[in-house]
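[agent] plan:
  1. take the single chain provided in the ticket
  2. run structure prediction with default settings
  3. attach structure tokens to the ticket
  4. add a short note for the reviewer (M.T.)
[agent] executing step 1
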Amino acid sequence: MTTRTTSAAPATLWTMRLDRASPLPLSRQLAAALREALSEGRIDAGARLPSTRALAAELGLARSTVVGVFEQLAAEGYIAGRPGSGYFAAALAAPGPASRAAPLAPRPLSRYGERLRDYGRLAPPQGRPFELGRADIDNSLIATWKRLAARVLSGRSSIAWNYGDPQGEPALRRTIADYLAAARGVRCRPEQIVLTSGTQQGLSLVAQVLIDPGDAVWVEDPCYRAIVDILEAAEAKIVPVPVDKHGLDVAAGARRQGPTPRFAYTTPSRQYPLGMAMPLARRAMLLDWAAQHAVWIVEDDYESEFQAPGQMLPSLQGLDRAGRVIYLGTFSKLVFPSLRLGYAVLPEDLVAPFAAARHLADRQSSGLIQAIMTEFMLDGHFARHLKRMRACYAERQHFLIDQLTRRLDGMIEIDRVESGMYLTAWLPWDWSDRATAAALAAAGVSTVPLSSATLETPRRPGLVLGYTGHSEAAIVRSVETMATVLARPTGLINLPKADLRSDRLSA
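[agent] step 2 finished; step 3 output follows
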């Protein structure tokens, strides 16, 4: 309905959305309805609005409320007051019928933006078994965190209330350096650490600082999905390097033709998603190759703390004597995911560009979170928490394996690996792990098909199952669901071998 004369139009023209049951004040509802009617051209330019007295009476509002709304809209330029005549609709540019019907032209993006356009909607986690990346968060951890937060906020601990160091607060960097030296054999000074929002931001900073479009990068095959997404967005040339029983196959990568990579990405402490650890001889081979060819190594040490301390090999960074390793760690998996706090340990000549890149991205990590994390580590809570979670996750893994063996023996196979946060269950060779994962998802069980983490190396189909952050009762129910779904293999059988394609990470 559109007003075509300058006489006052009925109030219902723009007040149809007034709702007295709404928590939004009626004055704001009236102003919003009026703005919409004026901006959409439902009231012609120059049309006279009802008097404030008449409109207030018709709507059952105080006249002062209507006067306030009109004055606000006049100040915003939607209407204009004329002494002795009232308020009139201002001339606003409104789309005509032809322009409303015309499709919008594509809006130009950068090449980076165009690659992200097809990335797909980022759905929030659903919390269903066997979703990856969840943590067991008990009441003692919550109580401890609240107590330390209160201590920090009370002023009994130092906290940077203004902008802090983009590299990270010195106290936390000193604490991390001491911890890494003792627990992971990392050799660094606090000045070599840059705080991040987690491993994923660390990888993004690596791509920004080290890669130009077209640069080659070695990536484990299969691998952590996010590194592929980050490298594709950076227009890097991804070079898949197969993983054998010892992790990244350095010799296989060296045999590939092509340019020397800018860096090699690896998860040596617990390869994702297959779970093996890289032995000392292979680590030495990788470090020698990197030193000879002046290649960086990005060591993603995402959950080594959940393995038995006596069985962990020292980090690649601790063995490196040529200064080629960038070591990435995260507290988000070790404590709780929403913490969003991690770190990069860098060769000295990379510290300045990394700190600058972090500053440009989001300036710094939260000073409050850094202060609490410092107290959490210095008071010994972090070490005790890791000890509890190490035992908890080992017990949870054994429980899941027991349930899978009882209910799915003959349908799947499981390789026992050092305890962590997930395991891989192998399906029959002629099954499709993607179809199986889709069928399980429809039944309420989240799994990651191994083929979605594979770049080009053919492998037996499998499912990656996360068991942390899921109760034993939920695990039992989910294994029962798996047994029901996998007992109906229709649609889960793979294509003939000749028809198989090497899937890139597109899910």
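[agent] step 4 note for reviewer: The domain at 391-499 is CATH 3.90.1150.10 (Aspartate Aminotransferase, domain 1).
[agent] ticket updated
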